[in-house]
Amino acid sequence: MREKDIIRGLAENGRADREDLVTLLQTENEDVLEELFAAARELRQRHFGDKIFTYGFVYFSTYCRNNCNFCFFRRDNGDTIRYRKNREEVLAIAKELADSGVNLIDLTLGEDPELHKEGFRSMLDLVDDIHAEVDRPVMISPGVISDELIQEFARRNAEFYALYQETYNRGLFKKLRIHQDYDERLHAKIKARECGMLIEEGLMTGLGETAGDIADALLAMRELKPSQVRVMTFVPQNGTPMEDFEPQNHDMELKIIALMRLLNHQALIPASLDVEGIEGLESRINAGCNVVTSIIPPTSGLAGVAQSTMDVGEGYRTVAGVEPRLKALGLRVADSDEYKAWLKEAR
Ligand code: SF4
Question: Is the CB of residue 111 below 6 angstroms from any atom belonging to ligand 1?
Answer without folding.
Answer: yes
